[in-house]
Design a protein that fits this description.
By secondary structure, the chain is of the alpha/beta class. 24% of the residues lie in helices and 19% in strands. The chain has 2 domains: 105 residues, Tetrapyrrole methylase, N-terminal domain (Cobalt-precorrin-4 Transmethylase, domain 1, 3-Layer(aba) Sandwich); 117 residues, Methyltransferase, Cobalt-precorrin-4 Transmethylase, Domain 2. Helix 5 links the parallel strand 6 and strand 7.
């Protein structure tokens, strides 16, 4: 519904659609999609099932074939017309979503916007593995990164240097270069380090491959996986663990006394 004259532009909502399962969008995200007059969605990554929540007559734009100016022109024009706009990203828009460049243009055009978080594929992959990414006595640090490809990575953030921390590493957008990923990670991790690849986490054809840095690349190649997969490495996803002090009967905290 258009706003009355003089009401000003409507808010543009950047919404994380989640990792794939349409039920994993947040309640707020789903409500905004249901109410939206215009939805610009990343068709190369966002499942069309997520669009089932759209109301009849919604104006849809698949950004997969659009460049930045075309995308923002749709959002700016619709906002100025008082229409409710949702920019739908896969996973969580704050990770590899190229959101900042869109938001910069909206700010320049004095268009209000909000960010609505979603479930990242990293967390969906951890759920598929039935593992925590942090473990007592092993690591309390998780690194989200990618290997350099068409988009460069700062030299100080090479996989080899990050692996030296022995934290859990989630490698996005790099499955097509799995051998290089393993080669770089092996410069910091021992070869026996647990490693896993989760293909299309939460989709109907989800596939989980587990192993170590020694064999994970071969297993991935054998499975024919070359896209839409998360690589996770680190001892936290391996077997065995030290019990957390959180539920230790001898450990007191603000909500429980010994």
């Amino acid at each position: 519904m258009n706003r009355s004259a003089g009401a000003g532009p409507s808010t543009v909502y950047f919404v994380g659609a989640g990792p794939g399962d349409p039920d994993l969008i947040t309640v707020k995200g789903r409500r905004l999609i249901e109410e939206a007059d215009v939805v610009v969605y990343a068709g190369s990554l966002v499942r069309e099932k997520a669009l089932v929540y759209c109301k009849e007559g919604v104006e849809l734009h698949n950004s997969a074939s659009m460049h930045l100016d075309e995308i923002t022109e749709v959002m700016v024009s619709a906002s100025r017309a008082g229409r409710k706009v949702v920019r739908l990203h896969a996973g969580d828009p704050s990770l590899y979503g190229a959101v900042r460049e869109q938001a910069d243009i909206l700010e320049k055009e004095s268009i209000p916007y909000e960010m609505v978080p979603g479930v990242s594929s990293a967390f969906a992959s951890a759920a598929a593995l039935k593992r925590e990414l942090t473990r007592p006595g092993v690591t309390q640090t998780v690194i989200f990164t990618r290997i350099e490809g068409k988009t460069p990575v700062p030299e100080k953030e090479s996989l080899a240097s990050l692996a030296a921390h022995n934290a859990t590493i989630c490698v996005f957008l790099s499955i097509g270069m799995i051998e290089r990923v393993v080669e770089e990670l092996s410069k910091g991790y021992p070869p026996s380090t647990p490693a896993a690849v989760v293909y299309r986490a939460t989709w109907e054809d989800e596939l989980v491959i587990t192993g170590t840095l020694e064999d994970i690349a071969a297993k991935v190649k054998e499975a024919g996986i070359s896209r839409q997969a998360m690589i996770i490495a680190g001892r936290a996803i391996g077997e065995g663990s030290e019990a957390s002090r959180l539920y230790d009967k001898g450990f007191s905290h603000g909500f429980r006394n010994r």
